[in-house]
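Per your request, structure below.
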């Protein structure tokens, strides 16, 4: 019987996930061997930057087409599109094994995991100070777990390369089958639980965008939540709360204001930072969501506007009229001719819903490229995760209701009362509240799947959704390379 886990000599990596080299379009990152691996801390830090950069090239890739966030939002009730082609394939759940919009994420996530494994191995054999070495290895293990979690969310359990011998091409003949879901989840849990105590509490300005304690614990909370390990999810959320470094900002809009980026924003836990000077790492969110007809009048310099992604009006109507989160979702605006527009009344192929302007405009934006950080984890998500876990464990309690009301008070939404809910009705309310609070942050698909409503919501939108659509198909090229890698159910040819 094949073993997926085995011992290595690395003290911080005693639990390792065995995998073969089946990544698509195999990319040479430079062989890291005993003769040529980086030996100085500066060398290794530089090498690690490449692993981080792959988040910006996969989860929020430049044009958002085939991006991880698009794969997690456009297939749900929170987003629709007036564009055709690949965008409709995601929106209508009409993908197939031979027409797979998730192929690039599959490839890039696997490459990032493999590259992280190589650099972890290089750190383990370097002469870097032992305390610094332990911290850097922990940081990269959390980052590797983040990619592995993103991969698991889209495709289910897959073998990933955490054996340095496989990553460094010492062994080339491994063709492993899929692990079980339990094995994969236990791998993620072990990576994060072993790593988070070693990390800094929160990244400094110089290290902004690198993994820290908050990142590891937030990801661990997500892993437990999706696995329905409610007690563990609640306890891990408490670990984040006890750090005492996070809180809700008074204003919802301020969380996403480009002026508030950096470690002084107490609500933000982990971001993918963007740099406008390099178009490979800028992104085009505004160009995708701003309306092109009638053209939205921007506050700053002229920018390109494509206008193909929107929030369905049915989703927009989930908010109370006084809810200040609506200040980030535009129905009324001024166009470039200084006319006032009610976009709900506009008849156009791209006028498919409200304008989800979650992030503030970038005053330095030119063309389509913007430099706003993408917020991956934030404190409001953790509070709602804690409320959900408590409800599953105990039913509605004063604590779970207060956690929800803390979120709602900030935006002037009506508070809810304990007496009005049982476990089932509060579960439904929490799902809706997560949708209102976390729109366009990439969590709607996970939340709907966890609540057993992903397929139901798709059917309500008139889509011929089948149970197997909760996962994307594994790219056929990966299966061709590794015949032991079985296709996800429903996609067999």
């Amino acid at each position: 019987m094949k073993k997926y886990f085995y011992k290595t000599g690395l003290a911080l990596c005693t639990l390792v996930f065995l995998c073969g080299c089946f990544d698509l379009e195999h990319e040479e990152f430079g062989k890291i061997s005993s003769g040529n691996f980086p030996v100085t801390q500066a060398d290794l830090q530089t090498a690690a930057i490449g692993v981080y950069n792959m988040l910006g090239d996969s989860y929020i890739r430049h044009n958002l087409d085939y991006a991880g966030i698009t794969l997690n939002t456009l297939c749900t009730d929170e987003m629709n599109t007036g564009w055709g082609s690949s965008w409709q394939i995601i929106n209508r759940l009409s993908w197939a094994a031979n027409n797979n919009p998730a192929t690039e994420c599959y490839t890039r996530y696997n490459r990032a995991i493999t590259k992280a494994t190589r650099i972890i191995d290089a750190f383990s054999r370097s002469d870097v100070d032992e305390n610094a070495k332990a911290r850097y290895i922990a940081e990269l293990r959390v980052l590797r777990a983040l990619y592995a979690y993103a991969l698991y969310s889209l495709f289910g359990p897959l073998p990933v390369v955490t054996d340095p011998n496989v990553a460094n091409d010492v062994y080339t003949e491994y063709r492993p089958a899929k692990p079980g879901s339990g094995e994969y989840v236990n791998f993620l849990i072990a990576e994060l639980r072993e790593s988070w105590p070693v990390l800094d509490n929160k990244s400094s300005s110089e290290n902004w965008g690198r993994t820290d304690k908050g990142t590891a614990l937030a990801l661990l909370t997500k892993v437990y939540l999706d696995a329905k390990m409610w007690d563990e999810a609640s306890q891990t959320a408490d670990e984040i709360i006890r750090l005492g470094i996070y809180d809700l900002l008074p204003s919802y809009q301020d969380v996403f204001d480009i002026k508030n980026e950096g470690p002084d924003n107490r609500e933000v836990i982990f971001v993918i930072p963007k740099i406008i000077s390099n178009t490979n790492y800028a992104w085009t969110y505004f160009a995708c969501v701003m309306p092109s007809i009638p053209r939205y009048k921007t506050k700053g310099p002229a920018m390109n506007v494509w206008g193909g992604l929107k929030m369905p009006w049915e989703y927009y109507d989930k908010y109370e009229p006084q809810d200040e989160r609506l200040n980030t979702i535009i129905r009324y605006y001024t166009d470039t001719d200084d006319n006032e527009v009610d976009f709900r009344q506009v008849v156009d192929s791209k006028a498919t819903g409200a304008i989800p302007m979650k992030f503030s405009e970038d005053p330095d934006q030119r063309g389509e490229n913007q430099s706003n950080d993408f917020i991956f984890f934030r404190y409001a998500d953790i509070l709602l995760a804690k409320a959900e876990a408590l409800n599953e464990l105990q039913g509605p309690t004063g604590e779970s209701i207060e956690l929800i009301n803390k979120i709602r008070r900030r935006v002037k939404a009506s508070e809810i009362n304990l007496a009005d809910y049982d476990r089932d009705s509060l579960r439904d309310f929490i799902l809706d509240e997560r949708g209102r609070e976390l729109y366009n942050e990439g969590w709607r698909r996970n939340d709907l799947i966890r609540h057993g409503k992903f397929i139901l919501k798709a059917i309500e939108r008139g889509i011929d959704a089948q149970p197997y659509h909760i996962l994307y198909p594994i790219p056929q090229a990966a299966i061709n390379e590794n015949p032991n890698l079985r296709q996800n159910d429903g996609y067999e040819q």
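The chain is about 40% helix and 5% strand.

Regards,
D.
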